Amino acid sequence: MDSGSYELPAQRTPLADAAETGLKIVVVGGFGVGKTTLVHSVSEIRPLNTEEVMTQAGVGVDETDGVDAKTTTTVAFDFGRISLNERIVLYLFGAPGQERFWFLWDRLFSGTLGAVVLVDTRRMDDSWYAIDRLEHHGTPFVVAVNRFDDDLAHPLDEIRQALALPEHIPMIDCDARVRRSSKNVLITLVDHLRTMAIARETTP
User: Fold this and answer.
1) Rounded distance, CA 204 to CA 201, Å?
2) 3-class DSSP state for residue 77?
3) Residue 141: CB atoms within 10 Å
4) Among 1.10.10.10, 3.50.50.60, 3.40.50.300, 3.90.226.10, what is the CATH number of 3-202?
5) Is-above-0.90 flag for pTM?
6) 54 near 111, Cβ under 8 Å?
7) Exposed, middle or buried by CB within 10 Å (0-12, 13-18, 19+), for 40?
8) CB–CB of 80/42 below 8 Å?
9) What is the pLDDT of residues 51-73, one digit of tens each?
């Protein structure tokens, strides 16, 4: 999925004076899965990104099967911001997808309230490391299946089974290029976090 094809909002929105809750959210997943695209499509501000042109240095190191047309890669992180309402603001950090940059993930997870694991069904194995690290840190997450144009449309229950994902972890379809779809992913995550918080409060 070309990160240059995402849908932009009609205008950039300044942060509301009433905003009182800022939540750090990390978007993780394999190389070329659409993390940069998601952050860019939904951000109210001009996103910060650290994409660089892929060079010969990555040949033989980076696994590009299924994303042969990709010419750039994130080398640190993407950053964006979205207000879900007047009071709740999400600060989005898109993690680098290439294996040689995975050492940065643990630092990005510091202070993170929740995460989105973006999945490409053509490269399902790339999702394992992200899920493993989030579980290691005890970070709540949801799984969003980014439906590419040539996706074989595996049903969600089949993907859940392939990832050995428990039923209580939300999984939804999305198109990271579309702002409304990306925002729905984030709303799903916030709802999941709220449900977990209520469960903790009501547990004796």
Assistant:
1) 8
2) coil
3) 24
4) 3.40.50.300
5) no
6) no
7) buried
8) yes
9) 555 445 544 544 655 545 445 55
